[in-house]
């Protein structure tokens, strides 16, 4: 009997994949409508995503098969959703991030800031959080965490061990840095359910020799890195994937008037667009202040939880800690010195990165005419150049700019022959580091959203939620944020936003609420995954590094989740209102909907 149950458990994912579609077959058979067919597809994909019975990207390909076969959409229409403008923005942003990582520019930034901040315990924690949050605004949260955790552990080991004269004078090499460099050359992976996950390097010496106080400080430092990686990602449109899911669904959704099921197709094709309401500049104005507030609160909370309120000790005012701090500072100095002077490649990547950010901000800022409105506008004065266009433009430049000052160099493999230096970016590097699975996952989400529109399923769901009109908008947003923040602890944040946002958009239309009033906070809430190691890759990296129990992460993350929701509510009810005009019903969302447009303003919070 034991062997029988063990066999079932071993084959649980195969059995789940085989039997779930059969169990759900009565839904499309008994209700032969497009709404039921689309619901059948969404339920299967949602359960597969939650259980991870198949790789997330493979599940995301289901609409390519099911939607055409069920008559919901043509295959050509489904395929377009897998490579739309938002996916182009994602790819372009990642290409630039890969160049930053390839030339170690992110490590130079991290060590430079830490040299300025110093190594006093409270300031050291703040410094790591600031650097991690800043880097995760532009590059992958996972890559940022994988780089910063070994640096944090190396500094802590110098801070906790008894200093010698040589350590203080020169700074000793730390094995943790050596492990980090080796792991970048050859990644060790484990296979779980067909998915490959990177295993970060472990610490160089056992933690049993540490005192309880030192262990708690190490736990606090590890958690501050993974939490600030998740927090920093919400600040920019390309910082984390859920933000792009929101933009893609806002841009691709046809906001239909009134009772959608009764509208002719000709009317649906002539709806006004959303005026590019969610772009890089508007998102930054909304999310960056929220990120700063949440980051500062996380710093205070982790300091209280793991360091206590001994401010004199936390800020390194005692004489006894100065020697250890000096040794730890020397470690950072040594690593920064080993990077050498900035190369031409680093300077070129820095220039192109800054240029990209400036072009993003000034393309179509909204409060003044951007270069997109002036030089590349359509007949309505709207920029035809998107943020994705800019990202791809800068990425292509990186493929054609040499990594050294132009000139000919000797080919070491073939004496007497000359060769040109390599470009800033090459396809081999891109192919190794580009997360193609996320591209498919994004596309699958957009295909689901489009299928929900075409089948009128989203409109039907929205109409069933009309009783919520009697509830105040802040209460609705607060409850939904808590729901999404809870759901994202055990499910991919991309899958969470993909499943929730189309329903929220239809609900907002049905109850005459600005769609962004619920979609924006729920998108941010999908990044509040602080309680469990499986909630997000940064949490998993820190947990697998050792020294942290699940109970430690739950204890630290629970209050941070609650405070994150409260900060989001503050943002959506204050400074985001003028940015997105949340007090009025947008014409792009409710055209000809007289039951909504009768009241020009939303109910006051």
TrEMBL record:
Recorded topology in the membrane: Multi-pass membrane protein
Pfam families on file: Na_sulph_symp
Cellular component aspect of the GO annotation: plasma membrane
PROSITE patterns found in the cross-reference section: NA_SULFATE
GO molecular function, one term: alpha-ketoglutarate transmembrane transporter activity
GO BP annotations, alphabetical order: cellular response to lithium ion
Superkingdom of source: Eukaryota
UniProt keywords, alphabetically: Ion transport, Membrane, Sodium, Sodium transport, Transmembrane, Transmembrane helix, Transport
Region described as Disordered: spans on this chain: 164-210
Compartmental location: Membrane
Record-annotated membrane-spanning stretches: 12-31, 38-67, 87-105, 112-139, 280-307, 343-361, 381-401, 471-487, 499-518, 524-546, 558-576
InterPro entries, sorted: Na/sul_symport_CS, SLC13A/DASS
PANTHER family for the chain: SOLUTE CARRIER FAMILY 13 MEMBER, SOLUTE CARRIER FAMILY 13 MEMBER 2
Family: Belongs to the SLC13A/DASS transporter (TC 2.A.47) family. NADC subfamily.
Protein name per the record: Solute carrier family 13 member 2
Source species taxonomy: Eukaryota, Metazoa, Chordata, Craniata, Vertebrata
